[in-house]
Amino acid sequence: MDEIGADEVSLGDTLTTVYDVLLNRYGPQHWWPGDSPFEMMVGAVLTQAASWTNVEKAIANLKEADALSPRAIRELEQDDLARLVYPSGYYNAKARKLKALAEFIGSKFADDITSMASVDTGVLRAQLLGVHGIGEETADDILLYPLDKPAFVIDEYARRLLFRLGIAPEVGPYKLYRSTFTDNLPEDTKMFAEYHALIVRHGRENCQKSPVCGGCCLLEICPTGQSTEVVLHGIDD
Ligand code: SF4
After folding, report:
1. Ligand 1 atom nearest residue 224's Cα
2. Using CB atoms within 10 A of its CB, is residue 103 exposed (0-12), middle (13-18) or buried (19+)?
3. Which of 6, 65, 135, 169 is the most exposed place for a label (fewest CB within 10 A)?
4. How many angstroms is it from 75 CA to the middle of ligand 1?
5. Single pTM value for the model
6. Can you tell me which atom of ligand 1 is nearest the CA of 216?
7. For residue 229, how far is its CA from the centre of ligand 1 (angstroms)?
8. Which residues line ligand 1 (CB under 6 A)?
9. Atom number in ligand 1 closest to CA 231
10. Which residue has its alpha carbon closest to ligand 1 atom 3?
């Protein structure tokens, strides 16, 4: 296998190799879980600083209350909504964020998710970033999974993996990590969705804060993993 950093290997080739290796190791991840695009959007907000297990509990509460639509979220009292999303943590803040998202979808698209999805990706992304509580990662989650738009989601797992593979941007605001993928891979929504899910899976199973490099499927192309010190002792992020 070519070595990362060798002159003849482009960043696109490296990213494609990493994708192929991860897909071969873990298989398709079938993300994002949810029965409807709006439920996926709610999950994207609730998963901020929360485990998915707790997000599932909050979504189950919303389902039981028949509150998984933009209109239902708008009509709920703030306190009642906060009570329903309590398991996901930061429940008052998250209730406000969900209300802001539901207001946005209602006022801009009359609750029509198909109409929302028809907006140009860059335009819609900028609009989403103007909604209270929606940052770059959440905006890209919403674009990519519920709306099937070609966005790439950057999270701590992705930052860590790029850094350890030696291909992280020198300075690292979100957009540089994002463009590392979007500028060097074909614009393929299905691949972007699968790639992010695979990075998360790999970050949980091997490339944790203290990486488990022995047996890692990327070890052969990972300079960090090939460092004896890291293999034996882990590294501090
Ligand atoms: S070899 Fe180690 S540092 Fe490299 S990707 Fe695998 S777990 Fe992460």
Report:
1. 3
2. middle
3. 6
4. 47
5. 0.91
6. 6
7. 13
8. 164, 206-207, 211-213, 216, 218-219, 222, 224-225
9. 2
10. 225
Residue linked to tokens 């509150």: 67
Residue to probe by mutation, ligand 1, list 157, 213, 230, most atoms within 8 Å of CB: 213
Q: How far is the CA of 220 from the centre of ligand 1 (A)?
A: 9
pLDDT digit string (tens) for the chain, length 237 residues = 444 444 578 999 999 999 999 999 999 999 998 999 999 999 999 999 999 999 999 999 999 999 999 999 999 999 999 999 999 999 999 999 999 999 999 999 999 999 999 999 999 999 999 999 999 999 999 999 999 999 999 999 999 999 999 999 877 799 999 999 999 999 999 999 999 999 999 999 999 999 999 999 999 999 999 985 555 544 444
